[in-house]
Amino acid sequence: MIFMRRTLEVIGAHRRRFPHNRPGQSDAYCRPLPHHGPGDPGPPLALPGGPVTRNASHRPDGPLDLVVDTEAADPPYEQIRERIAARARGGELPVGAKLPTVRGLAQQLGLAANTVAKAYRALEADGVIETRGRNGTFVAAAGDAAQRESADAALAYARRAQRLGLDHDEALAAVVAALRATYGD
C-alpha cells in the first residue's frame, strides 16, 4: 500500500511538472509523426545544405564542398579520396590547410564515419594528408611524397622487368602502354 501511494505521488509530481503529458492535451513535442504507407519513403532527408532526396548527390555546406554521388560506379570513399587529392595537387587546398574531422565530414556528406576514415587512410598512405594526433588532419606537401613514391615504384618496376628478362625497350614500351591506359592519350 505504501508503494502504491508513493507511485501515485511520483506520477502526480510528474504531471505537475509536465502538464502536456496529460490525456487529451498535446504539445508540439508530443505530436505524432505523420504515417507513411508502404512504398512511400516519406519526406526527403534533411542534411546541412538543404533537403536532399534519398540516393541522390549530396552537396554539403562546408570548407570542402565535396559532392558524393551515391549512384556512381566508384565507391564513396574513392570519390572523397580522388577529390581531396585533386584539390591538393591543384593548389585549391594549400599545404597545411586543416581538413574537417572524420565525423564532421561524414555528417556533412550524410555518410558513415568509417567511409570517410577509409578515404583519409588512403590519402595518408598516398602522402596527400597527414594526421597530427589530436591537432587534426592537414594537407601535406604532396609533391615531395608523390615524387618519392613514384621514384620508388619506378625503381621496383625496373628491377622486376630486368629479372623477367625484358630489355630496356620492352620495359619502356610496357610503361608507356600502362600510362596511356591510365591517363588516356
Automatic annotation (TrEMBL):
Claim: DNA-binding is one of the keywords in the record: yes
Keyword Mitochondrion: no
Pfam assignment, any one: GntR
Keywords: DNA-binding, Transcription, Transcription regulation
Segments of this protein annotated with the region Disordered: 17-63
GO MF term list: DNA binding; DNA-binding transcription factor activity
Gene3D superfamilies: Winged helix-like DNA-binding domain superfamily/Winged helix DNA-binding domain
Coiled-coil ranges (or none): none
Lineage: superkingdom: Bacteria
HTH gntR-type domain segment(s): 74-142
InterPro entries: Tscrpt_reg_HTH_GntR (IPR000524), WH-like_DNA-bd_sf (IPR036388), WH_DNA-bd_sf (IPR036390)
Name of this protein: HTH gntR-type domain-containing protein
